[in-house]
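in:
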C-alpha cells in the first residue's frame, strides 16, 4: 500500500495517536458479546483533530478485508490439486472451493463480516462528527468525509454481493440481504435490509462522496485512499450490477474520459495492471492475489486455454511450469525481486471502465459504440495482427454474441482480482463442476449457493437474522 519508509513514518504517528486513544479509554475493541456487530465501546471516541480522524481512516484502510479475492475459490479460475495442495491450505479453502457453506470444516477461512461492519462504524462516526473535527483545513475535512461515504458504501456493496441475492436475479424490493447501517450506534440490533434498499443507499452515498471528495489524484503510496474519480468508477460498477445500462455507460465513459490510460501488454515495457503504480490504477486498496491463495490453488488450465490466439495476457498473466501447472503472475511483479505482495492491490482501474462501458452499450443495442469502446483495450492486449482480424468479426456479431465476447474479455482481463464470482452471479450463473481425489462436486446452473448464507458468527450475535 505504501513504501517501507512511508509505513515507518505513518506507524510512528499512528502509534502515538492510537496509544492516546487506548490510554484514555477512547478507542473501541472487538470481543465476544451479544451485540450484532460484536463490538463494544470502552468509552466514547474522543478523536478531535484532523490528524486523529485521518489515523482512524488509515487504520480501517490497513485492515480492510480482501474478501473479493477469497471468492475466486468459488469460481472457475482456481483448482485444488491433491499433489500440490498442502494440508493446512486444504483445510482453509476446500469447503469454499466445493461450495460447502452449511457444514464447513472449523478451519475454513471465514469472510470478514465483523471487519466490514467495523469499517462501516468508523465511516458513520466520521460522517456524524465531521463538524467537530479541529485543526484541519475545510478541504481536508471534506475529503475525509467523502472517503467515509465511499468506505461505507463499498463495505455494504461487498456484503450485499456476498450474502444477498444478485440484483438482477431477484425481486430487489422484497429480497432480504444484510443489515444496512447508516448510524454509528453499537447498541443497534438491526434486521436485514432489502437488496433494493442497500443499492439505493449505495447510490446515495456515492453522490454524497462525490460532493465531498477534493483530491483528484493521490501519490502512489497513498493510492489506497478514495479520490474524486473513484466515485464515478464505483457508480459505474454499481449500475452495471443493477442492470441500469445507460447509467453504467454514462459513468464508465466519464471515467474513461478522465483516466484513459492503459498498460500496453504488447510491449516489453509495461507494469502489471494490478500493481498500485500501474498507469491504470484509480484506487489500489484490496489485495489482488494473496500468497496464501496462490499456495492453495492452481490456475485452472481450462480457463487459461480459453484465451484467444494473439492475446498477450496469457503470457503476461501466467507462466507455465508444466503442461498442466501454471503460476499466476498477478500479485507478483514479473522480474522484480524486491517487489512485495502488499504493492499488488487493485480496487478500481481504467480497464474495468472500458469493459463496463462496452458491456452497457452492447446491452443497450448500441453495437458500433460497444465495439468502439472495447477497441482501445483490445489494442493494448492483443498482437496487432489479431486485432486486425478481430474487429471485422465483432462487426458481424449479433447483440448476444457481442455481449458474450465482452464478458469473456472481462473474465480474461480482471481474472484473479476478485471480480469473477460477482460477475458469474450477476450474469449467467453457469453450472460449475470440479473433481478432487475422485469425487465430483457440482454447482448447478442458478444454484441457490450463488448466494452465501449469513455467517454463523453474525447469527450467534443476532439470532433474528436467521429467521428472516
Amino acid at each position: 500500500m505504501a513504501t517501507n519508509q512511508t509505513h515507518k513514518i505513518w506507524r510512528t504517528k499512528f502509534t502515538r495517536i492510537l496509544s492516546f486513544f487506548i490510554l484514555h479509554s477512547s478507542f473501541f475493541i472487538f470481543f465476544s458479546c451479544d451485540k450484532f456487530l460484536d463490538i463494544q465501546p470502552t468509552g466514547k471516541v474522543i478523536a478531535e483533530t484532523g490528524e486523529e480522524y485521518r489515523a482512524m481512516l488509515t487504520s480501517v484502510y490497513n485492515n480492510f478485508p480482501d474478501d473479493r479475492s477469497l471468492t475466486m475459490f468459488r469460481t472457475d479460475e482456481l483448482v485444488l490439486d491433491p499433489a500440490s495442495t498442502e494440508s493446512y491450505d486444504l483445510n482453509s479453502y476446500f469447503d469454499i472451493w466445493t461450495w460447502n457453506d452449511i457444514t464447513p470444516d472449523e478451519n475454513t477461512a471465514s469472510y470478514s463480516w465483523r471487519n466490514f461492519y467495523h469499517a462501516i462504524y468508523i465511516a458513520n462516526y466520521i460522517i456524524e462528527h465531521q463538524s467537530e473535527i479541529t485543526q484541519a483545513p475545510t478541504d481536508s475535512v471534506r475529503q475525509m468525509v467523502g472517503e467515509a461515504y465511499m468506505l461505507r458504501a463499498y463495505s455494504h456493496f461487498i456484503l450485499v454481493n456476498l450474502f444477498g441475492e444478485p440484483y438482477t436475479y431477484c425481486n430487489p424490493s422484497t429480497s432480504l440481504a444484510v443489515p444496512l447501517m447508516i448510524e454509528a450506534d453499537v447498541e443497534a440490533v438491526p434486521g436485514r435490509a432489502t437488496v433494493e434498499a442497500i443499492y439505493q443507499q449505495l447510490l446515495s452515498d456515492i453522490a454524497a462522496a462525490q460532493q465531498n471528495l477534493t483530491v483528484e489524484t493521490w501519490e502512489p503510496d497513498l493510492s489506497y485512499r478514495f479520490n474524486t474519480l473513484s466515485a464515478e468508477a464505483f457508480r459505474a460498477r454499481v449500475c452495471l450490477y443493477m442492470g441500469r445500462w445507460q447509467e453504467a455507460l454514462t459513468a464508465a465513459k466519464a471515467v474513461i474520459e478522465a483516466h484513459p490510460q492503459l498498460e500496453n501488454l504488447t510491449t516489453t515495457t509495461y507494469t502489471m495492471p494490478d500493481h498500485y503504480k500501474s498507469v491504470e490504477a484509480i484506487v489500489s486498496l484490496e489485495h489482488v492475489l494473496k500468497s496464501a491463495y496462490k499456495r492453495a490453488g492452481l490456475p485452472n488450465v481450462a480457463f487459461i486455454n480459453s484465451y484467444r490466439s494473439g492475446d498477450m495476457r496469457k503470457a503476461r498473466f501466467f507462466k507455465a511450469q508444466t503442461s498442466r501447472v501454471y503460476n499466476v503472475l498477478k500479485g507478483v511483479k514479473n522480474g522484480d525481486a524486491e517487489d512485495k505482495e502488499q504493492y499488488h492491490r487493485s480496487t478500481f482501474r481504467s480497464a474495468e471502465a472500458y469493459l463496463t462501458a462496452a458491456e452497457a452499450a452492447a446491452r443497450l443495442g448500441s453495437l458500433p459504440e460497444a465495439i468502439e469502446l472495447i477497441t482501445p483495450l483490445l489494442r493494448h492486449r492483443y498482437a496487432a495482427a489479431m486485432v486486425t482480424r478481430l474487429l471485422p468479426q465483432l462487426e458481424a456479431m449479433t447483440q448476444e454474441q457481442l455481449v458474450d465476447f465482452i464478458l469473456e474479455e472481462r473474465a480474461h482481463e480482471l481474472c484473479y482480482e476478485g471480480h469473477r464470482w460477482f460477475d458469474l452471479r450477476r450474469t449467467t450463473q453457469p453450472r460449475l463442476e470440479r473433481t478432487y481425489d475422485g469425487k465430483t462436486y457440482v454447482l448447478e446452473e442458478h444454484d441457490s449457493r450463488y448466494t452465501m448464507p449469513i455467517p454463523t458468527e453474525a447469527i450467534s450475535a443476532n439470532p433474528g437474522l436467521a429467521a428472516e
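note: The two ends are 39 Å apart (CA to CA).
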